[in-house]
Amino acid sequence: MTTTLTAPATGRQGPVAAEPGRLRRALSDSMTLTLRILLYYRHSPGLIAASLAAPLAMLLVFGYIFGSAMQVPGGGSYRAYLMPGLFVLVAVNGVVPSMVGAARDIGRGVTDRLRSMPISRPAALLGQTLADLLVSAVVLAMMVGVGLTTGWRIHDGVPRALAALALLLLFRFVMNWVGIWLGLLVGREDIAGQLSVLVFPIGMVTNVFVPTGGLPAWLRLVAEWNPISAVAAATRELFGNAHPLGADAPWPLRHPVVATLAWSALLLAVVGPLAVRRFTTHGR
Amino acid sequence: MSLPGNDTTRDGPPIVVEGLHKRFGSTHALRGLDLTVPAGTVCGLLGPNGAGKTTAVRVLATLAAPDAGRVRVAGFDVVREADRVRRTIGLAGQHAALDEGITGRDNLHLVGRLHHLGARGARRRADELLDRFGLTEAADRLVRTYSGGMRRRLDLIASLVTRPAVLFLDEPTTGLDPRSRNDIWSTVRELSAEGTTVLLTTQYLDEADQLADDIAVVDHGRVIASGPPERLKATIGTRVEVTLADSGHFATAACVLSALTGGESSLDEAERRIAATTDPDRSVTLPGLIRELDAAGVATLDAALRRPSLDDVFLALTGRTAPEHPAGSGPALERTTR
């Protein structure tokens, strides 16, 4: 395999793409940029605690305050319904650090420095998302711990529970790419910071907090086709938690695992290349 | 002829720019820039904000694509052989492009790894550079805690990790205190002495004067004059400024200054100031000036000879003063040609 990739020995300058070891170098670049983000967290471990703050606050407000007066259609505890939804919010929140980080790098000139170096462009972005994946695995594990101590349970066995967590991490990964693309598009840390407030309402118009059956028809349509609803339904299904559906629930909610995989693939296929292209051509 | 493969540079001048044009939307930032920098020399791109200096550096560093013209760095085309150019150059920009949330040492270490020096090689190189540039003590502190001067120094060092053959410095000292500025200057001198080819942009004539073997004055996206600093300054002449005690002496003073400098004098009635720039081939001394003014019976409050400033260069070269711009607002100087 490597021999066919060797640059021509004579004649014109061989195209850089044909150099051996290019893939290996791209992997090394990804790992270095993963390391870069992990070093951040090492010096600011509080960042991990901070990313737990929002879901914990919502657990308090929705799980214990609103939840005290809520009935889940078909029975069951509201907190058990809410918990997987909060896991999904952790995944959706992946947009924020990626968006703010990408915008900050542009503002500080770090993006230009990286672009002036001989590094693989996709690898540069992949490194950031991989680092976030590691960090969010820790955050999710902590949230699962919180869930288990507040009465939420896994009902369908460990393998399906692990599949649920894998699905959540996949969606977080997709959200990282969305965030990087938006951050590169916006290019300013302060605007990116303002935009991240929007993540909350987008996460609200879903089945994360309440089943969609009782929503007004137009809002219900939006909520049920929101990809986040499919992820939440898939998570509940895999953990064996109740996810009451209206009789006329659309396809993504009736096949949530497949729908989540499809949404993720689609979003990644669109946003990934857009982000790489934006990174490559920024300021050109 | 050079072989393809492992060579990091090719023969010929390390920086060759021919007829470079670059537009950003309706802004015509570069309009046929020509520049050649011989190996091992320092070239100063001098010009006001919005002249196109930063755009030129961005094209040379493969960050921006030229619209027209030929640009070669270390013998490699910046468009077709961008990756080769990137392996040869170092770039330090107007801001310190550093990660604030990690240590100085880690910043250098990461840059080394991204240049594929390997984990150990990158560590060794980082230690070496920190030691050489006197940052070892601060190396394990977060960059967030660094002073402006230290950040800029670390940023410059980060561009040296690969021992680049060609180094681009975009306004390396803008906004720095004099001591930090001197630190950067001596580093540039050392690098140049070691054979690095340096292109730096600056708004300050004295910086170009101190560092550059050749200065290229950039205006409206073109080089309007170039040469060694001495020659450039010699074309400008010295500026003579006199503040009068009595505005009734304006006419007499103007005669004296014209005779002395060979140039026309300009008046500032509110300040009672009169100024003129000498012909390049004349020299004026302060005692000489005072003597002549005394002899003509002109009472002066203040008289001064000023070294040529960027404004003077501009006045001499373009017949207008260098426009002032707030930093970062480029386009005001530019006007689209239709």
From TrEMBL, chain A:
<feature type="transmembrane region" description="Helical">
    <location>
        <begin position="257"/>
        <end position="276"/>
    </location>
</feature>
<protein>
    <recommendedName>
        <fullName>Transport permease protein</fullName>
    </recommendedName>
</protein>
<keyword id="KW-0472">Membrane</keyword>
<dbReference type="InterPro" id="IPR051784">
    <property type="entry name" value="Nod_factor_ABC_transporter"/>
</dbReference>
<keyword id="KW-1003">Cell membrane</keyword>
<dbReference type="InterPro" id="IPR013525">
    <property type="entry name" value="ABC2_TM"/>
</dbReference>
<dbReference type="GO" id="GO:0140359">
    <property type="term" value="F:ABC-type transporter activity"/>
</dbReference>
<feature type="transmembrane region" description="Helical">
    <location>
        <begin position="123"/>
        <end position="149"/>
    </location>
</feature>
<comment type="similarity">
    <text>Belongs to the ABC-2 integral membrane protein family.</text>
</comment>
<keyword id="KW-0046">Antibiotic resistance</keyword>
<dbReference type="Pfam" id="PF01061">
    <property type="entry name" value="ABC2_membrane"/>
</dbReference>
<feature type="transmembrane region" description="Helical">
    <location>
        <begin position="198"/>
        <end position="219"/>
    </location>
</feature>
<dbReference type="InterPro" id="IPR000412">
    <property type="entry name" value="ABC_2_transport"/>
</dbReference>
<dbReference type="InterPro" id="IPR047817">
    <property type="entry name" value="ABC2_TM_bact-type"/>
</dbReference>
<dbReference type="GO" id="GO:0046677">
    <property type="term" value="P:response to antibiotic"/>
</dbReference>
<feature type="transmembrane region" description="Helical">
    <location>
        <begin position="46"/>
        <end position="66"/>
    </location>
</feature>
<dbReference type="GO" id="GO:0043190">
    <property type="term" value="C:ATP-binding cassette (ABC) transporter complex"/>
</dbReference>
<feature type="transmembrane region" description="Helical">
    <location>
        <begin position="78"/>
        <end position="102"/>
    </location>
</feature>
<keyword id="KW-0813">Transport</keyword>
<feature type="domain" description="ABC transmembrane type-2">
    <location>
        <begin position="46"/>
        <end position="282"/>
    </location>
</feature>
<keyword id="KW-1133">Transmembrane helix</keyword>
<feature type="transmembrane region" description="Helical">
    <location>
        <begin position="161"/>
        <end position="186"/>
    </location>
</feature>
<keyword id="KW-0812">Transmembrane</keyword>
